[in-house]
Amino acid sequence: MEVNYDENPTPLYVLIEKRKSEEVIQHCLGNPDEASTWIVKKDGGNIRWRLLPLHVALMIRVSDEAIKTIIKTYKEGVKNVDDQGRLPIHLALRHIAHESIIDELLQIYPDGMEVKDSKGRVPIEMINDNPSSPKAKKGHHLRLFAAKLYRKLKSKNSEDSSLQQQLDDAKRKLANLGDGDLDPDVVALKDNIQELESLLKSSTENHDRVVAMFEKRKTLHDNEKQFLSSQLKSAEEENETLLKMNKLAQDENTKELSIMLKKQQDLRMKIAEKKNIVVEQAQQINSLKEELAKTKDEIFSLQSGLEIIDVSS
Asked: Which candidate, 43, 32, 38, places its Cα nearest to that of 55?
């Protein structure tokens, strides 16, 4: 089923878009058909995007429980691609979903890790596709996915060994039967051998492609790690240089402050000395004033005495 985003989006989609996780869980359980309903955004006659509720939930990042409920309600949705050819596992890795979500997606559709989107990208290549995601989480998801990929490769090796064993058994049986192109057993064995050889070749090619892709991602991860290490070392060196410059500036400031304090102290001493000189001079002036006053009194006394003598004469 398919609905138009602008005309009649499903209530489940609306709840996911509003990030109402608890209501998403309850509504999904009560209306399971909506989990399998496609939501389409159109521009005129062209499709701008086409998504299942699971795709939207992974992109908008509702709660893990809400996502798991949508997955359990419509497990086939895990195998469906959006308008850009992306599986839910592509989106889970791009938007750094919880480890338990990735586990559940791969348990339902383990071959999904090898599916390419419309740009030719397998899910592991989506980890670094979102620049806003924290690098620590990206690294964790890269290691997690690498471990799952390794287990899948081991499983493929086991399958290849089984196919090779079946092929060897069929060739031995054919050798025992000898030539007999018209013999039904011989014809059946030849068809079986051809089919097994084709399966083995296809499995080997897929194995080689996945190994090559994993090695490429490992190289890119190692290069990024080396680059970050180099950047960290450079930042530490710059920080050390800044600390040294700051210490020199502090030492220089301390030296200048000491000089200024010394000058201030010297100036205070000179001011104190001048004050002492002024006080001494004031004291001398007062002494002179006292002596002058005494001298005036003596002169006045002499003048009085002379006047008395003149009168007597």
From this structure: 38
Rounded to 5 degrees, φ, ψ at 274 are: -65, -40
* Sequence spans of domains, the chain: 2-130, 145-246
DSSP assignments along 96-117, one per residue = T--HHHHHHHHHH-GGGGG---
Q: What is the pTM of this model?
A: 0.50
Q: Tokens for 64?
A: 């893990």
Q: Give 10-residue mean pLDDT values along the chain (313 residues).
A: 91 95 95 95 89 95 95 96 94 87 89 87 74 49 52 51 60 56 55 64 63 66 73 80 80 81 85 86 84 80 71 62
First to last CA, the chain: 156
CATH entry, 2-130, from 3.30.70.20, 1.25.40.20, 3.30.300.30, 1.20.950.20: 1.25.40.20
